[in-house]
Amino acid sequence: MTVTTEIDEGGLAHVTLRRGEAGNAIGLETARGLLDAARACERGSVRAVLLTAEGKSFCVGGDLREFSKLSGEALGKHLIAVTDALHEALRTFAALDAPMVAAVQGAVAGAGIGLAAAADVTLAADNASFTAAYTAIGYSPDAGVSWFLPRLIGPKRALELLLTNRRASASEAAELGLVSRVVPAGQLLAETARTAADLLRGPTAAFGATRRLVADGLTSPLGPHLDREARALAAAAACAEGREGVAAFLGKRAPDFTRAASGTPGT
Predict the structure, then answer these.
(1) Which end of the chain is flanked by fewer CB atoms within 10 Å, N or C?
(2) What is the distance between the alpha carbons of residues 258 and 203, in angstroms, rounded to a whole number?
(3) Which of 128-139 are b and which e, b meaning 16 or more Cβ less than 10 Å from the residue's Cβ?
(4) Over the stretch 21-44, which tens digit does the pLDDT of each residue have?
(5) What is 3-200's CATH superfamily?
(6) Domain spanning 204-261, CATH architecture
(7) Per DSSP, which regions of 85-127 are E strands?
(8) What is the DSSP letter of 221?
(9) Is pTM beyond 0.90 here?
(10) 261 band by pLDDT with thresholds 50, 70 and 90
């Protein structure tokens, strides 16, 4: 399997790209594997998603060896099938309440940038580098790259990276806002696991509302967005996690959101 998904008893979904020998390049099987992973998270009682990749590189983009075996109409149909699956996976992950944490290392190119950008918290190893790569081979972006990059780093910087294909280091990616922060390569997996574990214990429903508000707020006028904030806040306050959070604050104790979500608030 090129993508595996394991959901532990606590609700942490471990999604792993397992084509390390091929730089975790995304072909049809991997795109469908990511969609299966997203749907498994959608069906399961998932409170956080941890996306990692085997091998030296997180993801080098599309599987050009696979694509080069086809041409003309057959290639076009194949690419549509790949992007349909990959894009539906991104839509499904984005619709979850559970936040996603990604660990990226080595080469991150093409669709790999889209996967890294889709995570709510993206930690990069200090050996990571980022290259758009699309126009270098005469392709245009997919995997939401042309949507994420302008929002994360601004349209001018996004266009520079997309048109020139220059390589950005991990430190530059953090300065631009493409990744959350940089950690030593040897600490990447431990640090991302710790971050995911922290989110796992948080208020999942409030996380979901917050994710949607931030995404919607990038294109929404202020007035309607304020209305959405008010409705989301009222719903969050009324749910078990919101009640637990306030009770814990007033009781001067740590909140137990996992118990609240299961219907047994802490005391």
Answers:
(1) C
(2) 8
(3) bbbbbbbeeeeb
(4) 999 999 999 999 999 999 999 998
(5) 2-enoyl-CoA Hydratase; Chain A, domain 1 (3.90.226.10)
(6) Orthogonal Bundle (1.10)
(7) 100-104, 107-109, 121-125
(8) -
(9) yes
(10) confident
